[in-house]
Amino acid sequence: MTAKPRYSRALLYYRAINQNRRTITMAIRTAEKPKRLLGPKRKRQPDWLTKGLQGVAFWIGHRQSLYSGYPLTEAAIVTEVCNLIQANLGDGYRLRCEVPFSKFIDEDVRPSLVTERARVDLIVAERVTRDGKKALKIKYLIEVKRASAPKGQIDADLRRLAAVKKIKPHYRALLFVISEGTIPTRFVTKRGMSLLGKKEIPDSDGFYRVLKTFKAARFFSKRDTAHYACLVEVFANRHTEEPPPARG
Questions:
Q1: N or C: which end of the chain has fewer CB within 10 A?
Q2: What distance in Å separates the CA atoms of residue 193 and residue 185, rounded to the nearest whole number?
Q3: Exposed (0-12), middle (13-18) or buried (19+): which is 70, by Cβ within 10 Å?
Q4: Number of helices and strands (H, E) in the chain?
Q5: pLDDT digits (tens, 9 = 90+) for 14-60
């Protein structure tokens, strides 16, 4: 008799996200706390962002239940993040993948950390009209990293995002940290909650905040083996005060 995949119900949730349903019955218990009323200074994240990150956590669980001996590659995770964002992105926005920084940063102001061939994983841009012509206005820069990646690689992404944020302050610079079956202790507490407060970026005057952590677990108590998707925002100047994020 064939054993049922442990995360078979996760697929139902994953499909529901792709169909952009507003009411989703949670099939797997997560460590997510009930929604709080947000204060005036706290940002409510767009639906495509929250659904994309929660969805990728459940998708990882589903894939691991089928192929537990084969950890997912970063490229596979980035691809699924793209699929989930695209499925929930409104008509007024466009998603672009692997975009060279040179496409939106002039050479004379490009930071030394951003090489000529450097690319950002994802860009979300708003459709606008300028002088009667349709154009795209970049709103979000997104890098995606596995939590198991070497610290130096994660730091490099953080420094690069901070450097770009400094010359493009109207962009939101985000890092998605995805963890498969372990707690990403740099960004999450042992209880599975976001590590709050400003965190310095090594060798940079920028800082980051963990805005929210999305989780998928077989049981509420199994935090150590849950799957995590952390939403990290990067800022250019550590002395700049930013509104506190919603806890989660």
A1: N
A2: 10
A3: exposed
A4: 4, 7
A5: 554 454 333 333 333 333 444 443 434 556 788 999 999 999 999 98
| Distance from the Cα of residue 176 to its chain's centroid | 3
Note down the domain range covering 111: 8-18+45-235
* Residue-wise pLDDT tens digits, 190-248: 888 998 999 999 989 899 999 999 998 876 566 778 899 999 999 987 545 454 444 44
38: CB partners within 8 A, 6+ apart: 44, 246
pLDDT at residue number 44: 79
In a domain, 143, yes or no: yes
Rg (CA), the chain: 18
**CB hemisphere CA count around 131 (13 angstroms):** 0
- 105: tokens are 């940063």
Task: Report d(CA 66, CA 60) in Å as an integer.
Answer: 10
Q: What is the pTM of this model?
A: 0.77
**Is 50 part of any domain?**
yes
CA distance linking residue 55 with residue 53, whole number of Å: 5
d(C-alpha 60, C-alpha 49), whole Å: 17
Q: Which backbone phi and psi does 42 adopt, to 5 degrees?
A: -95, 135
**Chain centre distance of CA 145:** 9
| Residue labelled with tokens 């969805």 | 55
